[in-house]
Structures are given as C-alpha cells and as structure tokens.
Amino acid sequence: MTPAQSRRARAALDSFAIETPSWGFADTGTRFGKFFQDASAIDLGDKLADAGHVHALTGCCPTVAVHVLWDFKAGEDPKAVAKLAKQHGVKIGSINPNLFQDQCYKWGSFGNNDAAVRAAALQHCVDSVAIGQAVGSEYVSLWFADGTNYPGQGSIRGRKKTFEDSLRALHAKLGPKQTMLVEYKPFEPAFYATDIADWGMALLLAKKAGPRAKVLVDTGHHYTSQNIEQIVAWLLDEDMLGGFHFNDRRYADDDLTLGSIDPYQVFRIFHEIHFFAADRGRMPKIAYMIDQSHNEKPKIEATIQTVVMAQELYAKAALVDHEDLRRAQAANNVVDAELILKKAFFTDVSSAIAAWRKANKLPADPLAEHRRVGYTKQAGADRKRRRQELGITQGGSYA
Q1: pLDDT at 109
Q2: pLDDT tens across 165-204, in order?
Q3: pTM of the full structure
Q4: What is the pLDDT, as a whole number, of residue 398?
C-alpha cells in the first residue's frame, strides 16, 4: 500500500459510521425456536451497554437502532431512553415500528382491508415518529410483512393504494429533520405477493409518500444472484438511496455476519457509492445500519466481526482508481476495468486500519480486546443471576 492509498483509506474510515441493532444483542431465533446465550441482553439497558462496548472497541458505531415494541415500555419517557444511551456512550438511531407481531396484523397492516387495522398501524407509526423526535433520531425505518399467500386472496392494486395513502399520511407527520426509509423484501412471510417486494415498488411508494422518503436496501432481502450493486447505483442516481441494512446470505434473509459468504459483493456496493461520490463531487448521505440475528455466534463477537469487515471493505473500495476505471470503461476495455476493481479489493489495508485505530486511541484488534477484557463472561454471569432473581425464563418474543 502506498502512502497516498493509506491516506485515502484512513480518510474513508473517518467518515464511515455503521449503526448496530438493539435486537442483535438479545436472544433471537428462527420460526422453529430459539437457542439461548447467558450473555444475551435482558432489557434495553443491557442492549445499550453491549452497543456502547462495541462502539468503544471499534470507534464507528455511535448509534443504536431500536424497535418500538421491544425497546420502549408503555408510558415511558423516550428522553429517559436517550439519557440511558448517552450513559453508555451511544445515541438512539433509527426508530423501527413493529407492524408484524400483533394479532391484528394477521391480514396485514397498511395493506389490511380493515380500515380500523390500517388506522391502528398508522397511529403506531405516528407514535414512532414522535419517539424519534423526542430522542433526536433522524430515521424512521419501515419494514412490512404485508402480502398474500394465494392467488385471488386480495386485490393487488387495492393494497397498493392503501399503502400509498398510509405512507403519505405518515410522511406528513415527519419532523423537518426526519427521513422515512421504505424497505422491501421479495418473500417471507408472504409467499405469493409481498406488498413491497422489490426496490422498484419501494421507490415508487417512497416518491409518492413525499420528498423525505427514501429506499432502504437490506442486502439479505434479494433473490440469490441478484445484482445488488446495480440497484444501489440506480437509487443513487435517482437520489433515493436512504440507507442499508447490512448482513450476508447464502439463500435469502439468512442474517449472517457481513462478508462471511461474499465479501466481494459488499465491496462492489461500497465501490458504487465511492464512484458516485467521485463523479458528483460529494458523498451521498446514507444511513449504514446492521440488521442481523446471531443465533449461533456470540452476539457481541458477531457484531464486532461485521463492523470490522465493513470498515475493511469500505476502505478497500476507497482505493479504486476512478480515473483509470473511466478510461477503461470508455475504451470498452473489459479486462482492465475488472482488474482495477480486483486490485483494490485484494489490497491489504490492515496497516491503514491499524494507523487509523492508533490515531483514534482504539484497540489494535477489537475482537481480541473484547475477549481479553472478559466482557462476555462477566455479562453472562451477571445476566444469568438476574434472570434467576427476576424469575425470567428465556423465551417470549423474537427479540
């Protein structure tokens, strides 16, 4: 790595932050059940403590995404939650309404043919917007499980219309500094027609909702072999890319640690963002977030793995020689264009990352430091004792 490359990599790291999810620190599971860990978070205080620990080790996770039903108690002052987060060295990040857990959502939320259920779903989202305003959160992240499983079960166009109306009504409640992120998912749990099944549907709905609505790309929410970086490039060009939920997958929404299956894909996504910035003279405003459910790996170790991998791939993508790439593209030089990307991807950026960590007074190896201080052992003993004292049996909701 040349000195110039090292400077570019470190400058990229200076501007990169990625949000951790509160639910990533709690016991989660599959549709078949859960596998428990003693050190998993019991409550929001534990989640924020774990998130603060990850941020202290990595230096790039200043915010924590929260789920309204899982992380806020009824009648609780949201500002108290923001204060608790500050005590752990982090801030509350994106607000995630829950529109899939309650029994009333069996037939959908915004797509439900019962106006009363749609009104309840909208009110929950409006309440979530208010929570975001109270805690200083900029993003309201929307994912819907709505859809149908059988042909003829519902009106596809009718459900589209109720989504348009509800999203437009929610957009009107946003504060001037808030952005609404519309997520999509091709299937699960709706297997015939998911109401927001792809990026085009999310894009159209966001545009109809209003100017502060953007699209959220979850890297696990795509069919196998789909070209996610092409989707990213199109959304960037339309100024409609609002954020990411990062994870890796072999089949669909596997929720694996980032780069565990295909690190080159994540690199290519980051490349499109850096290339866009080079062409436009500005880095786009994007909310980088993690959305993972760690059922086998230790929660914090898995999160650290994802964060350091994201930093490495983001730094590598910053090394692509855009001038050389433009020349190769203009000449239809396919081999050289591909090799320019590969050269950056295979560059060892460890020395630049080490220098960045040293300059920011961070551990040289976040995972090794986490293990050295024995955080998981201490948290596991404490939380096992607290569960016993509180009479908590591990189970209940997804997170």
Answers
A1: 98
A2: 999 999 999 999 999 999 999 998 999 999 999 999 999 9
A3: 0.96
A4: 52
- Please name the amino acid found at residue 93: G
Closest CA to 57 of 357, 398, 392, 354: 357
pLDDT, tens digit (0-9, with 9 covering 90-100), for 212-257 = 999 999 999 999 999 999 999 999 999 999 999 999 999 989 999 9
Both tokens of 275, joined, read 């290339």
Per the DSSP assignment, residues forming a β-bridge with 65 are 21
Q: How far is CA 321 from CA 281, 337, 339, in A?
A: 15, 10, 11
Q: What is the pLDDT of residues 340-381, one digit of tens each?
A: 999 999 999 999 999 999 999 999 999 999 999 999 999 999
Q: What is the 3-state secondary structure (H, E, C) of the chain?
A: CCHHHHHHHHHHHHCCCCEEEHHHHECCEECCEECCCCCCECCHHHHHHHHHHHHHHHCCCCEEEEEHHHHCCCCCCHHHHHHHHHHCCCEEEEEECCCCCCHHHCCCCCCCCCHHHHHHHHHHHHHHHHHHHHHCCCEEEECCCCEECCCCCCCHHHHHHHHHHHHHHHHCCCCCCCEEEEECCCCCCCCCEECCCCHHHHHHHHHHHCCCEEEEEECCCCCCCCCHHHHHHHHHHCCCEEEEEECECCCCCCCECCCCCCHHHHHHHHHHHHHHHHHHCCCCCCEEEECCCCCCCCHHHHHHHHHHHHHHHHHHHCCCCHHHHHHHHHCCCHHHHHHHHHHHHCCCCHHHHHHHHHHCCCCCCHHHHHHHHCHHHHHHHHHHHHHHHHCCCCCCCCC
> What's the rounded mean pLDDT across residues 294-322?
97
Please give the backbone phi and psi of residue 236, each rounded to the nearest 5 degrees, phi first: -60, -45
